[in-house]
TrEMBL record:
<dbReference type="InterPro" id="IPR002376">
    <property type="entry name" value="Formyl_transf_N"/>
</dbReference>
<dbReference type="InterPro" id="IPR011034">
    <property type="entry name" value="Formyl_transferase-like_C_sf"/>
</dbReference>
<dbReference type="InterPro" id="IPR044135">
    <property type="entry name" value="Met-tRNA-FMT_C"/>
</dbReference>
<dbReference type="InterPro" id="IPR036477">
    <property type="entry name" value="Formyl_transf_N_sf"/>
</dbReference>
<dbReference type="InterPro" id="IPR005793">
    <property type="entry name" value="Formyl_trans_C"/>
</dbReference>
<dbReference type="InterPro" id="IPR001555">
    <property type="entry name" value="GART_AS"/>
</dbReference>
<dbReference type="InterPro" id="IPR037022">
    <property type="entry name" value="Formyl_trans_C_sf"/>
</dbReference>
<dbReference type="GO" id="GO:0004479">
    <property type="term" value="F:methionyl-tRNA formyltransferase activity"/>
</dbReference>
<dbReference type="Pfam" id="PF00551">
    <property type="entry name" value="Formyl_trans_N"/>
</dbReference>
<comment type="similarity">
    <text>Belongs to the Fmt family.</text>
</comment>
<keyword id="KW-0648">Protein biosynthesis</keyword>
<comment type="function">
    <text>Attaches a formyl group to the free amino group of methionyl-tRNA(fMet). The formyl group appears to play a dual role in the initiator identity of N-formylmethionyl-tRNA by promoting its recognition by IF2 and preventing the misappropriation of this tRNA by the elongation apparatus.</text>
</comment>
<keyword id="KW-0808">Transferase</keyword>
<protein>
    <recommendedName>
        <fullName>Methionyl-tRNA formyltransferase</fullName>
        <ecNumber>2.1.2.9</ecNumber>
    </recommendedName>
</protein>
<dbReference type="Pfam" id="PF02911">
    <property type="entry name" value="Formyl_trans_C"/>
</dbReference>
<feature type="domain" description="Formyl transferase N-terminal">
    <location>
        <begin position="80"/>
        <end position="191"/>
    </location>
</feature>
<feature type="domain" description="Formyl transferase C-terminal">
    <location>
        <begin position="224"/>
        <end position="316"/>
    </location>
</feature>
Length: 332
């Protein structure tokens, strides 16, 4: 028995529609803008884009919102994704795939489960080892030998769903937080491209369960409030300074810091661990300024020495050698 012409036309249109995935993008930061640019280049325009700051005076400064407006795409505040009603909207719109890129909003189960194919999150860290916020900074602070970026299926737990695609790479031990985050963003866009390639080719999308025994959910707060604890080895303190270094951008952790003898707080922006110089006191208490030059200050750290070069005091950026004096004891 043949179908009525109008019914056959509807089914044919639906099949053609399904050949092009119906996407929704939740995105922030430069990484989110790069993924949106990739989607537009592939002619996969999202049904809507959700991002923070929609409708706010600062919207024009947000890279995702600015790019979405440029392409005439509908925008929603990212907070909408946390509402149960958003799951109903996804179902009514017959959304196939939800992509979450660097958005910090935790989505309810009904939203994650609403898209036909599923929801995927781009995480700037290796899973299951570094789940949670600020994985690049934690990797630097923990002095890990390698890092990675992961595109994983979302479920009710944070960064716990099956892995779809990942890329891992060695660390040099000299990375700063912004530098590492930028590399994760670049590689993450590549993972999204692999996803789109598989969708276009009709290949099954990978799903590799995470090893829960190896899972580490990172604390939401930075280690020790980013205070430099001078009893720790100099290499650990250097790593903390680099983990807080987001270059020209605001750090989610703030700066590493210590206190001057008069109680004022001083932020440390650049530092490096050095071998204890010949002639330096061998029994100086941790935190003691051993020597200063025009630019740098050498501070006892554990059994080592941390060389401070750039600091911020009373809102001013200065060379450490101009702000500190030999014999000062920091952090008291």
């Amino acid at each position: 028995m043949s179908r009525p012409p109008e019914q056959a036309a509807v089914r044919a249109a639906d099949a053609a529609d399904r050949a092009t995935p119906r996407l929704v993008l939740i995105a922030e930061e430069a990484a989110g803008a790069r993924v949106l640019r990739l989607l537009t280049e592939r002619q996969l325009l999202p049904l809507t884009v959700l991002t923070d700051g929609v409708g706010a005076p600062s919207e024009g400064l947000a890279p995702v919102a600015r790019l979405a407006r440029l392409h005439g795409l509908p925008l929603m505040p990212a907070l909408r994704a946390r509402e149960g009603a958003f799951a109903e909207w996804l179902e009514r719109q017959r959304v196939d795939l939800l992509l979450n890129v660097h958005s910090l909003h935790v989505l309810p189960r009904e939203v994650v489960e609403a898209p036909r194919i599923g929801a995927l999150n781009l995480h700037p860290g290796p899973l299951p080892e570094l789940a949670g916020l600020n994985a690049p900074s934690w990797a630097i602070f923990m002095r890990r030998p390698e890092h990675g970026v992961t595109l994983h299926w979302m479920d009710a737990a944070i960064d716990a769903g099956p892995v779809a695609y990942e890329e891992r790479f060695a660390l040099t031990g000299q990375e700063r937080a912004f530098q590492l985050a930028a590399r994760c963003a670049e590689l993450g866009v590549g993972l999204i491209a692999r996803l789109l390639d598989d969708l276009e080719a009709g290949r099954p999308l990978p799903r590799h369960a995470q090893d829960r025994a190896r899972r580490r959910l990172l604390p939401p707060a930075p280690p020790e409030g980013t205070e430099l604890v001078w009893e720790r080895p100099a290499r650990d303190l250097e790593a903390l300074v680099r983990a807080c270094d987001w270059g020209p951008f605001a750090s989610p952790w703030g700066h590493a810091w210590t206190r001057l003898p008069d109680g004022r707080q001083i932020a440390v922006l650049r530092a490096r661990a050095v071998e204890k110089p010949i002639g330096a006191p061998t029994a100086a208490p941790p935190g003691t300024v051993l020597a200063v030059t025009d630019r740098c200050a050498l501070v006892a750290a554990g059994r080592d020495v941390l060389e401070l070069s750039r600091v911020q005091i009373d809102g001013r950026l200065v060379e450490a050698g101009q702000a500190l004096r030999a014999g000062d004891v920091l952090g008291v």
